Amino acid sequence: MPAPGMGNLFEQEPFPQAAHRELGNTQMRKNLRHATHTIRDKRLRVVGELPDWEQLRDAGSAIKNSSMINLEERLLEFEKNFTARGGVVHWARDADEANKIVTDLIKETGSTEVVKVKSMATQEIGLNEHLETQGIEAFETDLAELIVQLGHDKPSHILVPAIHKNRTEVRDIFLKEMPVVDPDLTDEPARLAEAARKHLRKKFLAAKVAISGANFALADTGTLGVVESEGNGRMCLTLPETLITVMGIEKVLPKWEDIEVFMQLLPRSSTGERMNPYTSLWTGVSEDDGPQNVHIVLLDNGRSRVLADKFGRSALNCIRCSACMNVCPVYERTGGHAYGSTYPGPIGAILSPLMTGIEAEDNGSLPYASSLCGACYEACPVKINIPEILVHLRGDDVDANRGKRKIPTQMDLLMKGGSWALGKGKNIGLLEKALPLGRLAAGKSKKIKKLPGIAAGWTQSRDIPAPPNKSFRDWWSDEKESK
């Protein structure tokens, strides 16, 4: 069962079932293919401009590894410097604690509305849903997040939450859900952006409280940073009187100079841009400028569990660029909703089970949501070896379930049989004598079209060629004798 208080980190149903359903959504698959291929092509062009791209990846990985090794020290250093500059630091063990802290801070201001910068951390803890139960309305200001919110939907991508919608679908959502909108609105991108801007302008100007995430926290100065592409973040970070940031503890970097590396890695890997249109940095409170009531909630919510896993801890190096998702053949066909968790795609397939524990069962199928092709590892700007961690988690899943079953499954029997067959040469030699049975099953087509039991999953989408007349071992033996 899911651990209490961890928010939106769990599958809603096993991945194979969810994926099978999503595969039937042809419009979604068409939208995803177009969007991911566009982004990956842009990324390849701008990455190719840098002769030291691999060195930058090495540097990013080294900086994050260093930060994780000394995470407690870095966090305490950040707290000291952020507090010295007028900010207030709160620590939250899980989603429930984080939601309570944020709610109490909002209620202290007397506000019943907040504006939000795009934030994976607040999605993870289910903040919007929690605030609604407390009579507080949260307005997403990122265009893609706004589309998802107005459409009563869930994000399906780390960077582009509404990637599964095309612009005609977006227009229909705006016409149906926006309180005031031009009834002749077209699906031209500029017109859609204009409609969103008019919808949000009054919210920006009236809001007393804003909630943000953070891309980075710099320990040596107590500085927080947000990068975004639309300017909505800048509005949220400067206009309201109160600013509350919710940030995973893994986002802290040791030194100010470290951000130089990530300002090259992140925009190229995420949107295929050479630099980010808006980069906002703030250090506590600046007198007579910007929010005067500044808070940060440092969120654990399973991150300490990941840090303790020597094989999986590098998953905390993730900078949420989504490059792995844009090259993943599984994500491209199933979309983000099939993963259930806030974090979809290859990084979600390892991060969610690591944070909740594979034994929680609800995320037990996520490590199998991969072909292990390795494209995610090649694309990752901080060199997280996602395929290796997936294999590690699959092993953990097998170990966790080994003692729960009284009767062996088909997979257990197949593995036992494989172990016996490959354990000794004479054993596999005995099996090779059954090759004529395989040819008989193939018949005139010379293809085996259906296998029994669990093996039927293989032949649902492919045929198996009929076995050869002679095994390699027999051929080799005959060749040696003939000489």
From TrEMBL:
UniProt feature, compositional bias: Basic and acidic residues: 471-483
Source species, domain of life: Bacteria
One function term, GO molecular function aspect: metal ion binding
Alphabetical UniProt keywords: 4Fe-4S, Electron transport, Iron, Iron-sulfur, Metal-binding, Repeat, Transport
Domain 4Fe-4S ferredoxin-type: from-to ranges: 315-384
Organism: Glutamicibacter soli
InterPro entries, per database record: 4Fe4S_Fe-S-bd (IPR017896), 4Fe4S_Fe_S_CS (IPR017900), FTHF_cligase-like_sf (IPR024185), Helical_ferredxn (IPR009051), LUD_dom (IPR003741), LutB/LldF (IPR004452), NagB/RpiA_transferase-like (IPR037171)
Name by which UniProt lists this protein: Iron-sulfur cluster-binding protein
